Amino acid sequence: MYRPPKYRKDDKDFIYSFIQQHPFGVFIMNGENLIATHIPILIEGDVENWRLYSHIANHNEQYQYLKDGADVLIIFQGSHAYISSSWYKEKDISTWDYSAVHVNAKIKIQSPEELEKSLEKLVHHFEKFQEKPLFYKDIPKQMLLEHLPLITGFWLEPYKIQGIKKLHQSYPEYDIRRTVEKLGNSDNSNDRQLSEEIKKENKID
After folding, report:
1. 8 - beta bridge partners?
2. Which end of the chain lies in a sparser environment, N or C, as judged by fewer CB atoms within 10 Å?
3. Considering the entire predicted model, what is its pTM?
4. Residue-wise pLDDT tens digits, 17-50
5. What domains appear along the chain, each with residue ranges and CATH number?
6. DSSP label of 111
7. Exposure string (b/e) for 91-125, b if CB count within 10 Å is 16 or more?
C-alpha cells in the first residue's frame, strides 16, 4: 500500500481495533486474474497475537483457489471523503481523507467443526445488538444441515500488516477546522464520522 510516512499507522492497538470496528473486508486472491469478494471477516486473539477468519460460498469463483498456504490480501476500509480545497484559506489542491488497514495472509482451511464454531461466533458478533436476536443455535437444524456443505471456512494467518490514517495531519489549523466543520455539517453520516476522526487526530476542540 502507498503510505507517505506521516500517514503510516502501524501500532498494534490501532490495527486490532480498526479491524474490529470495520469487519466488512475485501478478500482478494490471484486466480487466472485478480478476484475479490466482499465478506465479513472477524478477528480473534489479542493485540499481540491474532488471526482472522471467514467463509465463502463454494460456488464463488475464488473457491477453486482456496487452499492451505494460498496467499491473499484483505482490505479493511474506514470512513473516507472528498476534501474540497475551496474550504481552505488559500488556494490548494483538493484531496481525499481516509483510513484503511491491509493484511497479507496465508489461508488455512477450517475443519467442519471449526467452521461451525466460527459461524456461531460470527452470528453472535452481529446479532447480539438486535432487539430480538436470532443466534446460530436458534436457526432450524435442517436449514443448517443443508447450508453447511455449501460453504467453506478458513483462517487467515497474517504475515504483513499495514495501516494508514490520512486525516489532514500537518495542514494549517484553519484548514483543518474548516474541513471538520464542512464534513460535520454534511448530510452523509460517513462524512460526519470522518469529521470526528480528523478532529480527534489533530486534537481540535
Report:
1. 164
2. C
3. 0.93
4. 999 999 999 999 999 999 999 999 999 999 999 9
5. 5-171 (2.30.110.10)
6. P
7. eeeeeebbbbbbbebbbbebeeeebeebbeebbee
